[in-house]
Amino acid sequence: MYIAITFLIAVLALLLVFWGGRVLVGGNWLLGFIRGSVGLILLGGALLIVLVAADVYSYRNLAEEHSVGTLSFRKLDEQHYEAKFADEDGVAQTFELRGDQWQLDARLLKWKGPLARWGIHPAYRLDRVSGRYLTLQDERTLERTVHQLNGSNYGVDVWESLRGISKRMSLVDAVYGSATFLPMEDGAVYEVRISHSGLLARPLNQQATSALEEWR
């Protein structure tokens, strides 16, 4: 679905490039300044649309609840862990987290109104993983860690732009979906799943299950 949307956006960009080129190379230069200005605006619009398409392509279709990956931990020191996140495609990222608990965030685009009725599914992109300390004193005084899993690498952030205006729009909601803070423990492995309501994490081994039972 979102590959098709990206393709349509790219076609629109190509049309703007074509129109912009025709304006710039038009034979009647009596109106050269106007032609040049309009042509550059069209080419600039085409570039912006290409960047929007690239950002939209980084989102995944969310038709139904499914697993987005696993997160495992290795203790390095007190309140200091190496975390390894392996996504649903098997691509792994490793980073260090400090604290007692972890949380994974995702960006969600939820379509409303006619777009939802036409069957366009929500989209998501995993955003960041962070650590948190149990005590307020530690939160205020000790090092805090947040790691980006995916980002908008082309200077255009569609989700952030929509988030600012989505409350006034009837077509889309740009919201965060976050898994509940869960305990970090040496050897613990968690599965992270996503649904239309957000992220859900569950323990996959005894270390994670025991840590969760002690925390609760």
Molecular structure report:
The chain is of the alpha+beta class and 216 residues long. The chain has two domains: 2-57; 62-215, no CATH class. 36% of the residues lie in helices and 35% in strands. The protein has helices at 2-24, 32-57, 113-117, 136-141, 158-165, 206-215, and strands at residues 60-61, 66-77, 80-87, 92-98, 101-111, 123-132, 146-148, 172-178, 182-183, 189-195, 198-203. Strands 1, 5, 6, 7, 8 and 9 form a six-stranded antiparallel β-sheet that branches. Strand 3 (80-87) and strand 4 (92-98) form a beta hairpin. The longest helix has 26 residues, at 32-57. The model has no long low-confidence stretch (mean pLDDT 81).
Shape: elongated
| Rg calculated over all Cα atoms | 23 Å
Distance between the termini: 40 Å
State the helicity in percent bands.
25-40%
DSSP E strands, number: 11
> What is the overall pLDDT average?
81
Which ranges are low-confidence, i.e. pLDDT below 50, for 5 or more consecutive residues?
Answer: none
Largest sheet: 6 strands, antiparallel
